[in-house]
Design goal:
Layout: H1 2-8, H2 10-20, H3 27-68, H4 74-96, H5 101-127, H6 137-154, H7 161-173, H8 178-206, H9 222-239, H10 247-263, H11 265-268, H12 270-285, H13 292-295, H14 306-311, E1 319-328, E2 338-345, E3 358-363, H15 380-387, E4 391-395, E5 399-400, E6 416-417, H16 421-442, E7 445-454, H17 456-470, E8 483-489, H18 505-508, E9 521-526, H19 534-546, E10 552-557, H20 571-587
Parallel strand pairs: 3-4, 3-7, 5-6, 7-8, 8-9, 9-10
Antiparallel strand pairs: 1-2, 2-4
Helix pairs in contact: 3-4, 3-6, 4-5, 4-6, 4-9, 5-6, 5-9, 8-9, 8-10, 9-10, 12-20, 16-17
Length: about 600
């Protein structure tokens, strides 16, 4: 009997060992201490559940307040950490088992499937140009429901262990229909398979294995994956008939815990990201920017808001005009080409906003042969800066009609042709002429223009800005336009040659055109980008420094892959937007 207690309840036995060694271990005393140990364990569990219940109530109340009155402060980030602890505790409580087994399973299903829906719904709300709020009501509802169910699970103490064991025995003794048994087996196999997928995903997240465009779905969503796969592991344990001390249970439990911890690594590295970003920005542009937070109320107060990661970020008021035709080709390679833009303008009462109607031109990526304005150019960036008082133009250019970079994506009608990098730069130059001719219609200040783009768009933005400032390609940008800054995201400088897309060498690799008076540049770069190697951004920075131009900063994103700015409320994008808005304000 003593050996059995020692084996099953080792931590609790250690607390009673001094007493056990002083008495004669008869069968009666062994049973007595066995009951004491069980009672001790039950009381500990009840204290855990009661504490977790209070956290659920606190998190629920703060979540409701945040849903209506979101903010950025140390207080709200503290609430964000409480929310993370509460969601983690709820999953653990559901696996350990409350009074209500069905409610436990409901929570685990809601945590796994629901948080996946939150992740996808937040992204969709963000990238849709016409969705003005940019926050998903569905996501907010799911998060609140998680806390409600979590509170229901933990609101009453656990039943006595003996009662739980007898109920479990009675439940296990009930015959299961063949169809239900088969369905259970299929579900268990499916859950096990999903866990294995999670193991593969976490390996790809923390290592340098290149998986192409699929890497977009990894690190920026990793905090969601932590909860999703922990819940799936818990669900698998909850639905199996294996005993807790079985090898299979240990494997599933260990896998769930490891996935939870490893997926959280990018989030854990946030302090490193923030420290390095502040250092790099200050070294390049001075420390004047540090006063902007107090001087400009419209700015982000903090580089990263934890609650915003889950609840999304609201867009401020803006106006949108879509599909404005600015060029129609009639001859040569441009015959049949039609290029359009979307324009996001500030609200009528924009006089006190920091943008002061300066112009931001954004150029989409896509390997020079796919992509488009709007949704595919992460529209909430456009919404955000229009809400800051900028006039934002989301512009098309001619795409090369060779084999597509990603075959399943569609190419806009009348945009594709046998276009080189030179042609694409020329098309963007034509837009600047249109802008110079029509800027008054949109209230755009063409004496203060910023160029930005991602990947191929980052390369083209750099080619347009640096080609004009170098003096070698003065006809690229209309001479009525004044470029104040360049903001490329993981610019694919020099890489179009590997796609067999020709062009002048300086336009293909804009780093070759950097001069001492080149426009200041703020660069976004993921450290694990498998499509545009981080070395490209480093070489771009070195080209500035070699010319004696120190006005360039690279914001490095630990574990960040290609397009890791897709999730607007993500830790990478939030951090870069914090510096981007200060950069534009500083140089406008």
């Amino acid at each position: 009997m003593l050996k059995f207690i020692m084996y099953r309840l080792q931590p609790d036995v250690l607390q009673l060992m001094p007493l056990l060694t002083k008495i004669e271990m008869t069968a009666g005393t062994a049973d007595h201490y066995f009951k004491k140990i069980i009672e001790l364990r039950r009381e500990k569990m009840n204290r855990f559940f009661k504490s977790l219940f209070m956290l659920n109530i606190l998190s629920l109340l703060l979540s409701i307040v945040y849903s209506f009155f979101p903010g950025e402060s140390v207080f709200w980030n503290s609430y964000g950490l409480i929310l993370i602890v509460t969601l983690t505790g709820n999953t653990v409580a559901s696996v350990l088992g409350s009074r209500y087994r069905k409610l436990d399973i409901t929570y685990l299903l809601l945590s796994s499937i629901g948080l996946l829906v939150v992740m996808l719904s937040n992204t969709a709300a963000s990238v849709l140009p016409t969705y003005e709020s940019s926050r998903s009501i569905l996501s907010i509802s799911i998060l609140l429901l998680l806390l409600v169910v979590g509170a229901a699970i933990t609101r009453v103490p656990l039943i006595r262990t003996a009662d739980r064991q007898s109920r479990t025995t009675l439940s296990a003794d009930r015959p299961e229909k063949k169809t239900r048994k088969a369905a259970r087996r299929v579900l268990l196999v499916l859950l096990a398979f999903i866990l294995l997928i999670g193991a593969l995903m976490v390996i790809l997240t923390i290592t340098d294995i290149n998986v192409g465009v699929a890497e977009i779905l990894l690190s920026q969503y990793s905090l969601f994956y932590s909860f999703i796969f922990l819940s799936i592991a818990g669900l698998l344990l909850k639905l199996t008939m294996f005993k807790w001390n079985s090898l299979v249970s240990y494997v599933v439990f260990s896998l769930g815990i490891n996935l939870f911890v490893l997926f959280a690594i990018p989030f854990v590295f946030m302090p490193s990201l923030l420290n390095e970003a502040e250092k790099n920005y200050t070294e390049s542009f001075g420390d004047e920017w540090q006063t902007y937070g107090a001087d400009v109320p419209a700015f982000k107060e903090m580089p990263f808001s934890i609650p915003a990661y889950f609840f999304g970020i609201s867009s401020k008021d803006y106006n949108l005009t879509e599909d404005v035709l600015f060029y129609e080709g009639t001859e040569g390679v441009d015959a049949g080409l039609e290029l359009r833009f979307d324009v996001y303008t500030p609200p009528a009462d924009a006089a006190n906003l920091p943008g002061e109607r300066s112009t931001l031109i954004r150029i989409h990526g896509g390997g020079w042969d796919i992509g488009d304005k709007g949704t595919e150019n992460f529209a909430q960036v456009n919404k955000y800066f229009a809400g800051q008082g900028y006039v934002v133009f989301d512009v098309q250019y001619g795409l090369n009609n060779q084999d597509q970079f990603v075959e399943f994506l569609t190419v806009p009608d009348r945009v594709s042709g046998d276009f080189s990098i030179d042609d694409m730069v020329r098309h963007l130059g034509l837009f600047t002429t249109y802008l110079a001719d029509n800027h008054e219609e949109y209230g755009a200040n063409i004496d203060s223009v910023f160029l930005s783009g991602a990947s191929a768009g980052g390369q083209l933005a750099s080619a347009v800005a640096l080609g004009s400032s170098s003096g070698d390609y003065t006809d690229i940008i209309d001479n009525r336009i004044t470029v104040k800054g360049l903001i490329p995201f993981y610019p694919a400088n020099g890489l179009s040659q590997y796609r067999n897309i020709g062009g002048e060498s300086e336009l293909v690799d804009p780093a070759l055109m950097v001069e001492a008076d080149s426009p200041p540049a703020l660069v976004y770069q993921g450290e694990k980008d498998g499509l545009v190697a981080p070395r490209v951004a480093e070489l771009f920075r070195e080209s500035y420094l070699e010319k004696g131009n120190t006005e360039i900063a690279v914001i490095w994103m630990p574990y960040g892959e290609h397009a890791s700015d897709l999730y607007f409320p993500g830790f990478y994008n939030q951090t870069f937007i914090y510096y981007m808005e200060r950069f534009m304000y500083q140089y406008q």
